[in-house]
Amino acid sequence: MEHKHTYDAKGKQLCCTQQEKIYTNAGASSLLEDGHSKKDGHNHSEHSDEDGHDHSKGNDSVVKMFLPAMISLCLLLIAIAFDNYFPQSWFTGWVRIIWYVVAYIPVGFPVIKEAFTSIGKGEIFSEFLLMSIATIGAFAIGEYPEGVAVMLFYAVGEVFQTLAVKKS
Fold this sequence. Notes:
Low-confidence stretches: 35-47
Largest sheet: none
Mean pLDDT: 81
Helix content: 55-70%
Structural class: mainly alpha
């Protein structure tokens, strides 16, 4: 059974910090000084899977973790090629914009979703919101490749951070 988050009356999350989420997703929650098990007042190794917590070790394969970034990178490279090296008459206007939006979605949607979740919890100026503003701003001024590239680099950095936490 999966861990259920608890919130106070104002909607602020009480049970997990951002650091705890990262370490838990990486399967390294035992490395937390004030980790989930200490915060709950019990040791996860002493109870069963039916206790309402997620005991998974984050066994997602590396390819699965990088898949959204790989999809986004392929679409971005094709778009850049159409823009600069192999110009296509059909790759203009709305087709071009939609192509870049589709390239943005695999890496951008999870970040934008997390930005809204953070805002709902009262964490207004999170890294997720700032990345969303920066990349949506790039789209607003017509710099579609830059918007996709910035979010792509951020997403790859997050995967590397998760892998580093998992290895430590």
